[in-house]
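Anyone up for a design puzzle?
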């Protein structure tokens, strides 16, 4: 999420990285990946540049909760038409406090929360996370029936692999629910 205060920045240097620089948000901090060969001056320059890029991306690509609610409704209608009432959440919203999960669902109050860390991921990955949480409204556990519901999404395995790769690259284990 964009804010007026400067975020905590963690710089990770890599022997294998030669020219590329990348950055991503990890909760309240920003992780900047740079080549180990960079001087301290180059590091400062690139940290500032990457913070500006992330800020610009946040302003440009900010998604609304209303868009997320509409996405959930479209996905439920398409993939769970046999569960029209069960797959209808009471609320769906982006949250910035989920560092160990991509999304979460509370079946008792029918609320779904999606981590804002996935906002910039491909649409098909966001769809997978939303569908995963919608499936929890139908089946609260991760049993075979639940996974059969999630498996209706043709890109489910691909999206799971993508999310596992992001988790591995960030060095943090992220739960699948």
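Challenge accepted. My sequence:
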């Amino acid at each position: 999420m964009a804010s007026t205060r400067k975020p905590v920045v963690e710089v990770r240097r890599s022997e294998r990285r030669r020219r590329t620089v990348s950055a991503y948000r990890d909760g309240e901090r920003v992780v900047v990946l740079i080549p180990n060969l960079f001087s301290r001056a180059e590091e400062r320059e690139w940290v500032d540049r990457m913070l500006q890029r992330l800020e610009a991306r946040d302003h440009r690509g900010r998604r609304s909760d209303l868009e997320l609610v509409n996405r959930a409704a479209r996905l439920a209608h398409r993939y769970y038409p046999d569960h029209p009432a069960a797959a209808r959440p009471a609320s769906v919203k982006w949250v910035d406090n989920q560092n160990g999960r991509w999304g979460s669902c509370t079946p008792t109050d029918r609320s779904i929360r999606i981590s804002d860390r996935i906002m910039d991921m491909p649409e098909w990955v966001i769809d997978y996370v939303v569908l995963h949480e919608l499936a929890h409204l139908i089946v609260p556990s991760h049993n075979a029936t639940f996974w059969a519901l999630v498996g209706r999404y043709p890109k489910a395995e691909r999206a799971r692999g993508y999310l596992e790769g992001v988790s591995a690259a960030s060095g943090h284990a992220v739960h699948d629910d």
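A detail worth pointing out: The CA atoms of residues 33 and 73 lie 37 Å apart.
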